[in-house]
Amino acid sequence: MVAATRTGFPAPEASYTWNQSVLHTAKGFAPTTLPLLSGAIPAGLRGSLYRNGPARLERGNTRVGHWFDGDGAILRVHFDQTGATGVYRYVETPEFLDEERAGRLMYTGYGMLPPGGLIDRFTKGLKNAANTSVLALNDRLLALWEGGHPYALDLETLQTRSLDNLGGLSDSLPFSAHPKRDPQTGDFYNFGVSFGKDTILNLYRIDAHGKLQQQDSHKLDGVPLIHDFVMAGQYLLFFIPPVRVNPLLLLTRLKSFSDSFDWKPEKGTQVLVFDRQTLKLISQGETDPWYQWHFGNACVDRDGHAVVDVIRYADFNTNEYFRQVATGKTQTSARSTLWQIRVNPLTGKVLEQQELLDRHCEFPVVKPVEVGQSWQQTYLSLHRRNADAAKEILGVIARFDQKTGALVEADCGENCYPMEPIYAPDAIDANQGWIITVVYDGNRDQSEVWVFDSDRLNDQPVCRLGLPEVIPIGFHGTWKSAT
C-alpha cells in the first residue's frame, strides 16, 4: 500500500465539502471486512463491485494539471453469504512506481507537461494513468484508460500484473475506457484512437475471455477527442464532436493535450455508423454541434432507425470544469442534459433530436442485459435542484423512465456525494436489481457503500457499509456477478 501524503497546498475555500474527497491522497487498504452501518445485505446480492478513479492528484507539492491525470486506484467490494469485504489499491504501472520512488511528478499527462526543462518535455513520455474505468473478465480485471493498453489486475487482491495486449493488440493501438458488451454473445466491442501522419479510429471485437478476435480501422478528420461510443443492435455509432487538437501546439510541446484543443462548432458533429459484424463503415453524416463524454444506451426501433441516448453539452467548457476539479475549486459552468437522437443508420442522417431531461446530469447506465437493446430505465447522476453548477459536483443519483418520463431521485443528503450508480442483478430473483454507489459524506469526512432497491430509489438504502478510508470521487465502475 502507498503511504498517505499531506500536501503543502493551502486548503481551497470550503464552500462545498466535495473537495475534501477529491483532494484526499488515498493510502489504500488490504482486504477488510466492512461494518454494516444500517439495514441488511440482500440475500441475492452476490458478486463484486469494482470502481476506478484518480486517487492521487499531487506529488512533491506539485499538483497534476487536470483531474484526468490523477493516479488510478481500484476499489473492490465483494458481497457473499458472510457479508462484505473491501480492498483498495493503486494500479502500479511502471510510471506510477517511478514517481513513487522519486517522490515527484515526472511524466506527460492529458492535462500537463512534465515538470522540468524543455528537454523533459520531449524525453518524458506519456503516463498511463489507468484511472478511468474497469472491465471484469473471468480471469482478470482490466484497468482502462484512454491512451494505451489496459493493465491486468488480480480480481480478488487487485495486485497489478502487467500491461495487457488482449492477445494481439499492437503496442501502438490504445484500448479505450468504454467497451460495450453484447449481452447475447458475451463479446465486447471497443475502440482506440491512434495518432501519426493520420488520425485513425481503430475498432475491436474481443471475446468473453478478453482475447482480440477482430479489428478494423477508419481515418478521421483532424485530431478529435472521442471518449465513448454506443452499440445499437447490429450497429456501432460514433458521434464525433467539433473539438480538434491544434497539432502545432502539441508537436512543439508548448501546451498539454488538453490545452491544445480548439472548439470548432462550424464543423458540426460527425456521425459514423459501422456494421458490428464486419466493423466496416456503413454511413456517415453531420448534425449540429455539441459535446458529449457519455452515452446512455441505444437500440434499433421498429422502423430500423437507431435510437441513441446521450448526455449532451452545448460546448467544450466541461473540459475546463474538470480541470478545475483537480484544484478543489470550480468556477466554470458546464451544463449537460439527457437527449435522445434518432438516426437512419443506412445514411447517417439525424432524423430527430429531443431533450428528455432538463436537469444537469452525467454517468448514465442501463441494465447490462439491455445494452444495445430496447430499454426503459436509465440510471444516472444529477445535480441537486438549485445547485450552483459552476461550484458543485453531482449530488444525486436517479432513475429516469423512458416511457413515462418519470424521474425518481435518491438524494443522499447535504454535503453527501454519490458516485456513478452501478446496476447489480439479483442472483435469486431475475426481476430484482440493486443500485450500488459509493457515497462521500463531507459532514463526517468518510466514505460508505450504499445499496438501493433499483425500483425504490427514493426509499432509504437497503444497507450502508463503512469503508476504512475516504475514496476520492472517481469515474466509472462495473459489477461482476458471482459465478
Structural notes for this entry:
The protein has 483 residues and is mainly beta. The chain has a domain of 333 residues: Methylamine Dehydrogenase, Chain H (7 Propeller), CATH 2.130.10. The chain is built from five helices and 35 strands. Strands 2, 30, 31, 32, 33 and 34 form a six-stranded antiparallel β-sheet that branches. β6 and β7 form a beta hairpin. The protein is globular and about 55 Å long. The N terminus is likely disordered.
Observed structural traits:
Methylamine Dehydrogenase, Chain H; mainly beta; 483 residues; 5 helices; 40% strand; single chain; five-stranded antiparallel beta sheet; disordered N terminus
- Could you give a short account of the major beta sheet? 6 strands, antiparallel
Please give the radius of gyration in angstroms.
21 Å
User: What would CATH call the class of the domain at 18-38 and 170-481?
Assistant: Mainly Beta
What is the count of DSSP helices, taking H or I runs of 4+ residues? 5
Broad structural category = mainly beta
Total beta-strand segments: 35
Q: Kindly report how far apart the N and C termini lie.
A: 29 Å
Which architecture name of the domain at 18-38 and 170-481 does CATH use?
7 Propeller
